[in-house]
Structure formats: structure tokens, C-alpha cells
Amino acid sequence: VACVCVCVCVCACAADLDVMAASAAAPLDQESLLEDALGFVAEQRVHLRKAIHEQDLKAALRCAACLTNELRTSLLAIETYYKLYAVVFVELQHLASFVTHAAHKDETEALKIYELV
Asked: Is residue 97 a contact partner of residue 54, using CB atoms and an 8 Å limit?
């Protein structure tokens, strides 16, 4: 069963419209923005871990790209952004462990990983 990752980053699109919104956003807005971003990250986390469990490198890399795209925002204040960054970073550590393990299994696997990225 293939992992389906949808890379839709609402925050990134909105960031292009108004760069100064982060400083003007009320704390309630920051909380709702963070809640939306963390919801998307949680959804992608499920897909990423499923892909890792199934040893599907392409799907895992797609999900990781979706996770990192969620960090492309200027709407979040520094403290709020760091909370999002910390959650994404933890998930990317799972991917790093998976890729490292896959690369140590076979040299051709390392070449395949390099070509995919």
C-alpha cells in the first residue's frame, strides 16, 4: 500500500501575501496557526512512519518534503515557530535513522538514496 502525501502548505501561501503578519498577529491567531500547522504535521507523521515501516524510501522522502514545507512560513512568531520546528525536527530524525540504516545495508542502496534526493 503506497503512502499518499499531499503537500499543501496553507501557511506558506499566506506568508507570501503578508510578511509582516507575524508581528501583528494576536496570540490567539498564533495559537490557531500553530494548531493548524501541527495538525498537518501530525497527519504527515503518520504517513512518514508508515512509509518507514514499509521500507518505502520514496514515500518517506515525499512525506519529509511535506513536513519541511510546513516550516516555510513567516506568519508565526519566533516562539511559536520554534514549537513547530521542534516537532518537525523530531520526525526528520526518524527519517535520518531510516536512511542511515538503509545506506549501511548495501552500497547500491546508498547510491539509490543519493539519486532520489
From this structure: no
Alpha-carbon distance 109 to 78, whole Å? 39
SS3 16: helix
DSSP letter string, 79-106: HHHHHHHHHHHHHHHHHHHHHHHHHHH-
Return the C-alpha cell found at 31.
Answer: 495559537
pTM: 0.70
- What CA dihedral angle connects 29, 35, 40 and 44, to 10 degrees? 150
In the block, residue with C-alpha cell 496553507: 10
Cβ-proximal residues to 25 (8 Å cutoff; 6+ apart), any chain: 33, 75, 77
What one-letter code names the amino acid at 23? S
List, for residues 48-93, the tens digit of each pLDDT value: 999 999 989 889 999 999 999 999 998 999 999 999 999 999 999 9
